[in-house]
Design a protein that fits this description.
Length: 458
């Protein structure tokens, strides 16, 4: 046998019949090993591959139906009236900045008012900053005394009041949660990242801290339906342990939808995709270059003026028309619109926002059927506007004066039986061709904001 070891293969097979079997056995072992390896890879992938539950899929559908949400940036930074980045921009040392907590006392905060504000505007959900990059928790947490209940004279938990009020009023609540933290020593802001972790600080401790806070937010606050992560872009090279974090959230409540404002393509475990200050497909801000549009539910967020957090000098308020156009343009691209306000440090919402949004709300009362529960992307955005649809109805939103005496909807499948003006039900002349539908809308009274034309299909 030992001799055979050094003989050539043919000789081995001839002279040592047992070797022939050996080589077959070896081939078989190789095959088995390969099979085992493939099976292992498949099993590992299957373990990590995220399959949303039926409840989660229902949440996603409902999320898409809601279409319009209120984004709220509110924290101790609001006191300085210069946006939520004030600590960073004005280079305020963390220990000095922390003193803002000593006099944060939002006596004017009233969860009912916030929820009614959203409802009046026709919004169906609220996404609120539970903790922003300054690291201050706007909710009662056991993980750190740097929170609104323990560190401020207010001593109350506005997130709890908001969650309870939202639940009572049928408004869905999502928590914004910052991954980035400018102050915590374990995060070690500014530290170089090597092998997926900051060189300074204690990355495991920070990940555990976030996991505990997220557990608190999901288990203590009633009715939370979404987590909105932000700050990933500050450390693109770090290992954020999303498998653990997303896994934990979905284990605690599989119906919760997770989104991450990382500005890149969606990752495993995420349930919706967001775009910041950009309609899906646009990249006006420079944030969306790598945000390849996914098949997940979409959301785009924008500010009502030019600031996220309260900014006392920012009077560049968007008009009613701008806000409605943003909402309609988002819906036409199959996305929700999350419109941000920064309440004042006393907890009140400034009257300019309330006035504008009350008018938007009236518009939604009248025209909401062409937005809520609809889907987009049936027809690509056109020069004159966009299209939404629901069941057998297609809504053409004419936002800009058409360049022709008609509007053309390419690639509409299904026979159009009727075309009417949504506002008064009057009939509109149309012609359906194989290449699309021509609607002769030149004679109708154009609406200053959005002329909505309803097409009924068979
Ligand atoms: O830095 C934040 C900013 O303060 C704000 O929260 C926005 C909201 O989309 N997101 C980050 C910038 O991408």
């Amino acid at each position: 046998m030992r001799m055979c070891k050094y003989a050539d293969v043919q000789m081995k097979n001839k002279l040592c019949p047992i070797n022939k079997n050996n080589s077959e056995i070896r081939t078989m072992i190789k095959k088995l090993t390969l099979f085992a390896l493939l099976f292992y890879c498949f099993a590992v992938k299957a373990q990590t591959a995220y399959t949303p539950t039926a409840d989660n899929l229902a949440s996603r559908e409902n999320f898409q139906d809601m279409k319009f949400g209120l984004f709220i940036h509110w924290g101790i930074y609001s006191e300085l009236g210069d946006g939520e980045w004030v600590m960073h921009e004005r280079k305020i040392p963390y220990n000095n900045y922390k003193r803002l907590a000593d006099f944060f006392n939002p006596q004017g905060f009233n969860a009912k008012e916030w929820v009614q504000f959203a409802k009046r505007a026709g919004m169906k959900y609220i996404t609120v900053t539970s903790r922003h990059h300054d690291g201050f928790s706007m909710f009662g947490t056991k993980t750190s005394p740097y929170n609104i209940v323990d560190a401020t004279p207010y001593h109350k938990d506005p997130m709890m009041e908001l969650a309870q009020e939202c639940q009572k009023e049928g408004i869905e609540l999502h928590f914004y949660y910052s991954l980035l933290d400018w102050g915590r020593p374990d995060y070690a802001y500014g530290s170089p990242i090597v092998n997926g972790a900051p060189v300074k600080g204690d990355w495991d401790s920070y990940i555990n801290f976030m996991k505990t806070q997220l557990t608190e937010l999901i288990t203590n606050y009633p009715g939370v339906k979404g987590i909105w992560f932000d700050g990933h872009w500050e450390r693109p090279a770090v290992n954020w342990h999303y498998d653990e974090i997303y896994g934990l959230i979905h284990k605690l409540n599989p119906a919760i939808i997770i989104g991450n404002n990382h500005h890149v393509a969606v990752k495993q475990g995420e349930d919706f995709q967001m775009f910041e200050k950009d309609l899906p497909g646009n990249n006006n801000t420079g944030f969306s270059a790598d945000s390849k549009i996914s098949s997940l539910p979409l959301e785009t967020c924008e500010t009502i003026n030019n600031s996220w957090g309260f900014n006392i000098n920012d009077r560049s308020y968007k008009t009613v028309k701008q806000i409605i156009h943003y909402l309609v343009n988002a819906a036409g691209r199959n996305a929700n619109f999350l419109l941000n306000i920064g309440p004042m440090p006393n907890g009140k919402i400034q009257p300019e926002f309330a006035d504008t949004l009350a008018v938007v709300g009236k518009w939604m009362q009248k025209n909401g059927e062409s937005i809520y529960g609809t889907r987009g992307n049936l027809v690509a955005p056109q020069q004159w506007g966009v299209v939404t649809y629901k069941n057998n109805t297609i809504y053409a939103h004419v936002l800009n004066t058409p360049q022709q005496p008609y509007i053309f909807l390419p690639s509409v499948k299904g026979k159009i039986t009727k075309v009417t003006l949504l506002s008064d039900g009057s009939s509109i002349k149309f012609k359906q061709q194989p290449e699309g539908v021509f609607i002769y809308a030149d004679h109708i009274n154009a609406d200053a904001i959005d002329t909505i034309i309803e097409l009924t299909t068979k």
